[in-house]
């Protein structure tokens, strides 16, 4: 059965490509936040350990929301590390940085994801896809707020 939701196939493909980048950013941030939760040390251990846990849990749920939106558009969602690695611009952390670098990296990652969410919004608005605009706007707000909260720790 063909998908007939009022958005042309070409437009759905364009939006799904942007959403796939957002999914890759989300999953990359999830993985980094979870690793930092496990490995944080230092004078702010307790507060950062708890904060990172809250953040990775939110990102885990967000990844599912983004992937399901891609499927609503009748496009298959990426789901492998290699696919995510090609789609995201968030840098992988192969080691264990100190707490301050962890926070800096997460700020940068959330800012990248906010920019990606803005690209989703542009593509979705151009196609009249209010569902994707709404979902991406929520993600944009979440990434901006998280970046602000993390950035506040560094002042």
TrEMBL record:
The identity of this protein, by name, is DNA starvation/stationary phase protection protein
Q: Name one Pfam family in it.
A: Ferritin
Identify its protein family.
Answer: Belongs to the Dps family.
Q: Which residues form a coiled coil?
A: none
Any GO MF annotation of the entry: ferric iron binding
Name the source's superkingdom. Bacteria
Q: Which InterPro entries match?
A: DPS_DNA-bd, DPS_DNA-bd_CS, Ferritin-like, Ferritin-like_SF, Ferritin_DPS_dom
Q: Which residues cross the membrane?
A: none
Species of provenance:
Dyella choica
Q: Which residues form the Ferritin/DPS domain?
A: 18-154
């Amino acid at each position: 059965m063909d998908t007939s939701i009022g958005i042309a196939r070409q437009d759905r493909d364009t939006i799904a490509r942007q959403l796939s980048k957002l999914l890759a950013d989300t999953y990359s941030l999830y993985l980094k936040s979870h690793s930092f939760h496990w490995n944080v040390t230092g004078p702010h251990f307790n507060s950062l350990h708890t904060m990172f846990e809250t953040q990775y849990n939110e990102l885990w749920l967000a990844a599912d929301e983004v992937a399901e939106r891609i499927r609503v558009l009748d496009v298959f969602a990426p789901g492998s590390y290699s696919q995510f690695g090609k789609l995201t611009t968030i840098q992988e952390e192969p080691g264990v940085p100190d707490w301050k670098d962890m926070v800096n990296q997460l700020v940068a990652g959330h800012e990248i994801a906010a920019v990606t969410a803005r690209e989703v919004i542009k593509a979705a608005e151009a196609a009249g896809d209010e569902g994707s605009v709404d979902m991406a706007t929520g993600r944009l707000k979440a990434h901006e707020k998280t970046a602000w909260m993390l950035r506040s720790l560094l002042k």
